[in-house]
């Protein structure tokens, strides 16, 4: 059958919306070497051989489905007007179409050989064809990499990983809770066992071992959240024991005597010498506390003796002492303190020495054993037992005595001298 008749038969079938099975469908495929491979399609795929390089070319079978905008086919789909337009365009091709230059064909062939055609190269080739006078190529647009957060989260937070994380969290919390319960149980056993040990060491007057047992008991009380009378009693007893075990090596009278020469005059470094002595450890006092007349919350210690012609004023800036003194028949108290600052009087004056007690170091004595270790015996002083009992009752009932250091105030009389350039209670060397 002549080729022209075959073409007319194929066009008639396409115009009707179908395709005759006896109409042969040719193919024209370009090889990588640039040669054209032609032939007829078959019902199945075939591998044609390039006549120039003998390279195999894969050829698709006859497409028995209607054509789409992206897939060509011998069977035309759509309305009759579209099929008629396609048939007419095949019968009357556009003669104004100009073949592409050879260099553009070579560039497209290289792009196709690389695997993917670049839109930028195609546009550059078109621009070179339409505008040959332009020598500079177009600058490519810089495309930054995009990070898909949702996709990353979906890949990371998979159900299996979330399940594993939940299991790890449960195991970790369970282990922590079990360890905490073991610590609580050990603290409870220590708290119960230490009560008997404290009585034994007090009876034996072994203050060294007593401090270690009290420290363990207080630590256990902190963990158990104790805040009752027994807890306050043990905490105060621990502070008493630390004060007794860290007493100063000298007494105040000896320290004051070293601040004067043979003519009863202050030495040049009297203030620094006394400051070094009184800050070396605790001092135990059996004295009277008197409220300051010009400031609330500040109390003065009454010392039994004074050196030379200068009196001594020792300031205790603790407002919580008001509850102790207001409920007592007298203002007597037995306590241990450390001093943190000293102000010396002028050399040729009758001013007083000023000593400032360190508020956290002030501790009321409640144990007869501790008093006997410093020479205060209840057998020699019948009123001492009543004083110790009153102080113990105050310590056990007061909920603010434990935090007395945070409520301390600055004595006005002691701070007034700092305006003249001398060292104040809160100044550093």
If you had to describe this structure to a student in words, what would you say it looks like?
The protein is α+β, with helices and mostly antiparallel strands. Among the domains are: 25-63; 159-226, no CATH class; 246-416, no CATH class. It is built from 14 helices and 11 strands. The protein has helices at residues 3-15, 80-91, 102-114, 119-130, 149-156, 159-204, 207-224, 229-245, 252-257, 270-278, 321-326, 368-373, 384-397, 412-416, and strands at 26-30, 36-40, 46-49, 56-59, 283-291, 299-301, 312-316, 332-337, 339-343, 353-357, 363-364. It has a 7-stranded mixed β-sheet, sandwiched between helices. Strands 1-2 form a two-stranded antiparallel sheet. Strands 3-4 form a two-stranded antiparallel sheet. β5 and β6 form a beta hairpin. α3 runs antiparallel to α4, α7 packs antiparallel against α8 and α8 packs across α13. Mean pLDDT is 79; it is low at 130-134 and 418-429.
